[in-house]
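Anyone up for a design puzzle?
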């Protein structure tokens, strides 16, 4: 769980998973938090009872990981949590109208589609076929990257000059592919975007501290690529 001084609670395994952009957002916003982790057991059983034993006892409408509790607010689903924290911390597009907000929401969901093709590769492959399967997944990922490059254009961030939760989500999504394929990024504006996020003073410790969650595995213990 992540527990901030504002009584925010997170729940997730000891992996980057789908919660890492929220961790980045909280660090960028300067919100102190403590993280308590549900860690999957080791092979061969990969026991998950540490989570399943409490899953339906927490008052969540749709119990899942990750989840957030902020006072009376209890949320699951990564994009919903990201949007909530973005709005609460002011990391939301300034002066947006409904059309703008819907566009950023569309980008967030496209990012999820992008992330999940990589996640499925890591969990559904075996050690024998991972590299062969990766070829098609990387090619599909680059189709998304072309669209992301077009959406970013000449802007600093995906909402122009305003950094938002979408930017942390995009950084994490692209970085996951770079971990699997170091030469994955082909578009100059996305290369500069990634460098811009890495260079944020608020995230210096996040990227450089050896014990940072940034250095945790991407995926859980039963994935062929972690």
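Challenge accepted. My sequence:
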């Amino acid at each position: 769980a992540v527990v901030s001084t504002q009584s925010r609670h997170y729940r997730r395994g000891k992996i980057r998973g789908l919660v890492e952009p929220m961790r980045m957002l909280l660090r960028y916003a300067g919100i102190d938090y403590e993280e308590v982790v549900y860690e999957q057991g080791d092979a061969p059983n990969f026991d998950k009872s540490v989570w399943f034993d409490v899953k339906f006892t927490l008052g969540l409408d749709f119990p899942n990981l990750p989840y957030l509790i902020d006072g009376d607010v209890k949320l699951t689903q990564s994009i919903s949590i990201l949007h909530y924290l973005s709005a609460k911390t002011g990391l939301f597009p300034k002066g947006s109208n409904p059309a703008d907000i819907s566009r950023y929401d569309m980008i967030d969901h496209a990012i999820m589609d992008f992330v999940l093709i990589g996640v499925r590769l890591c969990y559904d492959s075996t050690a024998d076929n991972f590299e062969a399967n990766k070829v098609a997944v990387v090619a599909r990922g680059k189709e998304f990257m072309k669209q992301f490059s077009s959406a970013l254009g000449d802007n600093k961030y995906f909402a122009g000059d305003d950094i938002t939760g979408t930017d942390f989500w995009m950084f994490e999504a692209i970085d996951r592919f770079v971990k699997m394929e170091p030469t994955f990024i082909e578009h100059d504006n996305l290369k500069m975007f990634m460098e811009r996020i890495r260079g944020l003073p608020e995230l210096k410790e996040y990227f450089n501290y050896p014990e940072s969650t940034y250095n945790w595995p991407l995926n859980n213990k039963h994935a062929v690529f972690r």
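A detail worth pointing out: The CA atoms of residues 122 and 225 lie 5 Å apart.
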